[in-house]
Amino acid sequence: MTTTRNSDAVGLRLVIAYKFVKAGAELVLATLLPFVARSALRDLAALLGRHVAGAWSLRTSELLTHADTPRAVALTALALALDGVLTLAEGWALHCRFAWAPWVVVISTGSLLPFEGFELARAPHPLRLLVFVVNLAIVWYLAAGRRARHSARPMPLAALQDLLDRSARTATPAVADSIAHPTRRMTAAELVEFWKSARIMAMTTVGANGQPHSAPVHSTLVGTTLSLVIYDNTVRRRDLRTNPRVSFTTWKDGAVAILYGRAREVPGSLRDARHGGGGAPRRVVAIEVELTRAYAMRAPEPAGDAGRERLSLAPPVV
Question: Do 108 and 143 touch, CB atoms closer than 8 A?
Fold first, then answer.
């Protein structure tokens, strides 16, 4: 599961990088095009025709070939700019991990593939074929990935149990002999109930200068995702902008849970909250944390193995 999740993340980052590079190139070209000498327009058109498979850019190369007037050049620059802005918006939406972003890219890119295929058949070229294949791969990857995540998504408890098991297998000796000890380790269902019963948790972030910061929070655990809100002017929010790694700890009556993960601010979640103690208005933002490690230890039995009850609750060395 971890390997699949990591490969998905790498693939998505490659798609985002491709979108940003393509958008940047188109916007730079649209900006410089009015200043290019007319004698160079035909060479530029040939370059676009050989290297780009996009339907907009193919039409751009044809316009450039006949760009004998400033109006034609302006229309060509406008076409490039519009395509660049659209591509940039796609890359930004994917980068923000909006749930609808993959489908927008699938529709916008996939709708042009038939036209690009026709142009490729009409004027074959290896580089044009390469870009066509890249666009086709992006559509397939995003569409297939979305379907797979919806149809084969593990149940929340199963995903959390898998995380607990993997964390225990890779625990350091100190953790394995205490909080991750098999005789005291919580199941996923026990952890969820324990987390619900805990009124408050300690959230720890690390700032750009390496300074740790801990503060109390309320959070909800569903599967391997933690959801919470924090005030918009907190040190934690500033820390997360430079370092998304976080940890959470809570304990009660000898039971303890320590969760690690990577946090992200939910786009568009900033909203008003109740006023502070001094009467000043406040706002909060939503945070989602994808857990990467999880350790949870049950409270000691009221009676039983004395040695088992003395298992250390000291902070594990990780």
Answer: no
> Backbone phi, then psi, for 187, in 5-degree steps?
-80, 170
Q: Please give the Cα distance from 78 to 54 (Å, whole number).
A: 15
For residues 299 and 313, the answer to whether their CB atoms sit within 8 Å is no
CATH code: domain 156-309 is: 2.30.110.10
Q: Classify residue 253 as left (phi > 0), alpha (psi -120 to 50) or beta.
A: left
Segment 238-268, tens digit of pLDDT: 999 999 999 999 999 899 999 999 999 999 8
Portions of the chain given CATH number 2.30.110.10 = 156-309
Q: Are 82 and 159 in contact (CB under 8 A)?
A: no
- DSSP symbols for 54-86: -HHHHHHHHHHHT--SHHHHHHHHHHHHHHHHH
What is the secondary structure of 161-187 as a DSSP string? Answer: HHHHHHHHHT--HHHHTTTT-TTTBPP
pTM of the model: 0.52
